[in-house]
User: What shape does this take?
Amino acid sequence: MQPHIEVPYQQCLSIKGQALTGLSENQNLILQNEELLKDAYRWMTLTRVYDQKAVALQRTGQMGTYPASLGQEAIGVAVGMAMAEQDTLVPYYRDHATFLLRGWPIRDLLLYWGGDERGSAGGPVQDFPISVPIATQSSHAVGVAAAMKIKGEANAVVTTIGDGGTSKGDFLEAINVAGAWQLPVVFVISNNQYAISVPRTIQCGAKTLAQKAVGAGIPFLQVDGNDFVACYDAMQEALERARSGKGAYLIEAVTYRLGDHTTADDATRYRSPEEVKEAWSKEPIKRLQTYLAEQGWWDESQEKAWQKSCDQRVEEGIAAYKTMPPEPAEAMFDYLYEEFPEVMSAQLDLLYRKVERMRAPDSVVDELELDGLERDDSANDESLDEE
Amino acid sequence: MDTNKSSAQVHEITMVEAVTLALAHEMRVDESVVLLGEDIGPNGGVFRATLGLREEFGFKRVMDTPLAETLIAGMAIGMAGHGLRPVAEIQFMGFIYACMEHLVSHASRIRNRTRGRVTCPIVLRAPFGGGIHAPEHHSESTEALFAHVPGLRVVIPSSPVRAYGLLLAAIRCNDPVLFLEPKRIYRIERQMVQDHGEALPLDTCFTLRQGDDITLVSWGASIMETLMAAEQLSEQGIECEVLDLATIKPMDFNTILKSVKHTGRCCIVHEACRSFGVGAEIAAGLAEHALLELKAPVKRVTGFDTIMPYFKNEQYYLPSEQDIVAECLELMTF
Assistant: This one.
């Protein structure tokens, strides 16, 4: 039998979009904040439109493998909205909503997933780039948090992770030191129920992922990850604690990945249509939209105008992505070390020669190749000696 | 900051003391330099490389971490990304493999992937190599694993003076540096080290002895046997040029090439396993660029492609002065 651990669970909006009773003062304040909630709704819908277009770009061969955040927009937007500009985000790869809120241009996000390193050049100067290896970002986040503490900054770090990532040592080592050193870091688990195809239930034997914080000695909370109000309230409290020197916090946002793991995945192999249908009934955007509409804060004409604006914004980003001139090949050398090590100059020369060969018209390439064959046949050819 | 060379204190110290001296110097002149690792606080590190630094610089700059090497590497990356210059100690190189993912996947490439927005000025220090009768997993020399990683610098000092100067350079470098300290020579000799704050150049090998007959290339603890072999060969009329590679990656191959073109013979000495290593890289470069200048095949005196024996037999594994002399005599009679 598992030891009994009380894991608080927080939800503010019912799955049908009605405010629940018995909420805290802050939760009620959020529920009454028309502009805040409309803003949240706008970011969630923008993220969804961006996601759909990104998947379409991949499907039409205009972008690389892409992990959509379909269904996880509420927690992503809550993280982005609750963070202050000077806080630091140390993200995982499915944080598109938060990236948009942190100011990453759509063009740059597309560049990143389109295989161009310049995609990670933008964004807030202190935020970390996307981490593709799983859970390593947790360790980086506690390093940033330790640096903040050493420097005496009153800022916080937010680091995100999927449910699968919490099985890894990096995550456990990071929450351990965050507890021991009272670091200003908020760990956000986006528990979307699947690590590619492996369901949460066989990923980990604990009843909740939040309770992993017990062993680290840090406070924890489970929230309905599809409920923006609950997520935002939790993030506000966690960030406030962190910024005021009270230490780390762990939030498990219980959500559901409505799409595939990435565009290279086919989730129908391991999930039933019934399960996905049931998950759609709890999705975050419809839920908040219903609430807004019932308050009289949102109507069909606003919806139409906003959708049009989202389309336009994403299309502009796509156009900027498509017209971005390619980076020169030597950029791989330019950014490897701060200063180019002279001892690598022979390799740079090899690259220049390769680029020249690639730029040569087909006929010239053919000639060069023939030339090479002829040279091979004539061992005494002086041109062999040329460096 | 003590920039006045003439007034700089001169210490007759061992290599491990030179490490401490360099750390203390840089911590005094640069507030962003912080240390983290296991047992580095009151204990001063298992080899005492950080002795006294907690007392001088306090808890915020000399941090005892939980016993978790992966975390140490990852935290250092986070600290570096937030404006600090962390110098992390991994107690023994045998425990460094847990850091591998952070070194390969993040530290070495974060500048490149962010086009310079986020950089990683970390130093990861680790004692390494055999010859001190240490337990299992404490005696290997696996520098080649790290030298293979683009974006990392791998630096190995071979004397107190070079430990001081190269460590200063490593800390000031805005890229990640793996600073491997050959523990067999931590306390074997004392040198006069001036605490003047002057770094030695990275990416450069040092010519320790000049000669016309054979180029001997080595690094770390093996420099000791290499220099002794050169002395012995000199008594037999064979003059060796001895190069200390110092920065393993990026490698100063041009200096090696120039020397080998002059001597026509090359013997590479390293403690690490024989195959797929740094010695093989040098030999391949010489085959590519100096074939016609070679008077004899390139030789390697190395450890074997075996598990490093436990300490009762480690002397059979480690390259000795006699091994080097024997190979060099063969080179001269080829």
In short: Chain B touches chain A through 48 residues (CB under 8 Å). The longest strand of chain B covers residues 123-128. Residues 270 and 302 of chain B are 5 Å apart (CA to CA). Confidence is low (pLDDT under 50) at residues 1-5 of chain B.
